[in-house]
Amino acid sequence: MRSALNIPKSTDILDHIHSLPQPAQDEAQTAIRAIERAAMVEQEPQPGLEELISYLERRGMRMGLCTRNFDAPVSHLLQTFLPSATFSPIITRAFRPPKPDPAGILHIAQAWELEDGADSVIMVGDSMDDMVAGYKAGAATVLIRSEDNDGLEGHEYTGVAIERLDELVGVLEEGFVEREGRV
């Protein structure tokens, strides 16, 4: 995506797009959507996704989604891999401001009418944006480890790190405790 927009890694893609004048902004959005549409055809669920969702549903836990993707890849993921799961609300790129701003997670907490803000929410993700948004919203954070996020496990905003989504079942069953040293 960065190469399609000719921007460095240090520049936020969505901030860059929104800073462009028209019609360059629309052209950049179109280019990014084309990349995401192509990628969604190859999309595979995270290992352990179905097991985790089944566990959460059996316990009546609410699930929301907060992503920087646009709606088509999100719909594809849910319809293809989790057709019976209910996620509400679903926060996509159209919601401003996007992650790493905590506004999307706080919006989910508000939609659920949580009295403690996002203190009883768990943000599960695989990027620094996810950990920052969760932490700043007051949510607990769970990092899904990958080659792309090496080094985030020890970050002050990461509460728990797992390899597979179904590992979260054990974490929840044992009583969710974030790692020592998390700020």
Structural account:
The structure is a single chain. With about 180 residues, the chain is mainly α. The chain is built from 8 helices and 5 strands. The strands form 2 sheets. Strands 3-4-5 form a 3-stranded parallel sheet, covered by helices on one side. A two-stranded parallel sheet has the order 1-2. Strand 3, helix 7 (about 130-135) and strand 4 form a beta-alpha-beta unit. Helix 3 (about 25-40) runs parallel beside helix 5. The longest helix has 18 residues, at about 25-40. The protein is globular, with a radius of gyration of 17 Å. The mean pLDDT is about 90.
Architecture blueprint of SSEs:
Layout: H1 2-5, H2 13-19, H3 24-41, H4 49-58, E1 65-66, H5 71-81, E2 90-91, H6 103-111, E3 122-125, H7 128-137, E4 140-144, E5 160-162, H8 167-173
Parallel strand pairs: 1-2, 3-4, 4-5
Helix pairs in contact: 3-5
Strands in their spatial order, largest beta sheet: 3-4-5
Helix count, DSSP H or I runs of 4 or more residues: 8
Low-confidence stretches: none
Query: How helical, in percent, are the residues?
Result: 40-55%
Computed Rg: 17 Å
Helix/strand-derived class?
A: mainly alpha
- The backbone outline, from C-alpha atoms, is globular
Strand content: 5-15%
Total number of strands = 5
Largest sheet: 3 strands, parallel
Termini distance?
A: 33 Å
What is the N-to-C succession of helices and strands? HHHHEHEHEHEEH
Summarize model confidence as the mean pLDDT: 92
